[in-house]
Design brief:
The chain is α+β, with helices and mostly antiparallel strands. 46% of the residues lie in helices and 16% in strands. Strands 1-3-2 form a three-stranded antiparallel β-sheet. A hairpin with a 2-residue loop joins strand 2 and strand 3. It is globular and about 25 Å long. The N terminus is likely disordered.
Length: 70
Amino acid sequence: QAGNDEPYSREDPDTILRRALSAAPAEGIPVGDLITATGMSRRWAFYRLRQLAAEGYAVQTVRGYWRAAQ
């Protein structure tokens, strides 16, 4: 069955992004890892991160690292 070795293949990028942020350690996860996980562009990733931050869902810990807000 196709896709068994790709656990995120059936999920939309926003769901993957939120899951990755929620699973991130206190210091955050690098934006590059989020881009790789979602398969989306750098521009999209930063756009969504800014949106999620405005909604109070995500926080930037240090430059280039993000996690879900506590």
